[in-house]
Amino acid sequence: MKRFLNFLILITISFSFTNTYSQKFYFNFGVGNNYTASTNFQMTDNTDVYSATTTGTQITGIKRNISENVSFGKGFQYGGTVGYMPSKSICLELNINYIKSNVFEDKYYEKFSSFDNDYSQKYQSQMLRFLPTIRFTLENDLICPYMKAGLVIGVGTKIHVEENFDFRDQNNTEVVQESEFDMTGGISIGFAAGIGINIKTDKCYGFFSEINLISQTWAPEKLSYTKFYQNSMDVMAYVPVNIKESVFVDS
How many domains does the chain have? Predict the structure, then answer.
């Protein structure tokens, strides 16, 4: 079964440095930061009393999940736009940008009188996006407000995950596992809308500030482990193929 992720619903605030015009074509370049409007997923954050039997002895401890809201659209982005103006109030744009999300972490632990089990995961994503949009502008000599809407097409998407697991095995021996894997493949399709203002400094240059709302859905095609260490030893060669690499299919 494929894993589907609501990849991002976010607000993007960006500022350009230059905006170069011709009579019909224009180009701009900008950087921005994405803020979360909704989350992709969240592990349960709770604390429970936990009982287990080990070597014939009943033990009691505490287990807890410590997590944060995860939105893979939250982070820094940069890119540029090429636009064509068939009229003074209508613009056809193609924006290309690259986004790398913040790093998110989930932790889980079990604490007993004689030992602890600790598990953590760190997530980070990256994506190259193409946004074909249509923009409607209220023309003015100096300040031009506008609104726009269109599609979002994401390619080259990768979610990188780092895992760390510190636990006791059946012989009560401490085991530390460190692993990393990537989820890749698939094309992300979504919708984008935005509003902004364009401030003209002269006929060729200007500045703009823009707020976007972007929603995307993405499903990876492949999961591949790139690192697997146990007690500081590389054991990747001993990891079964069905664990080392997985392919997601529709079901």
Answer: 1
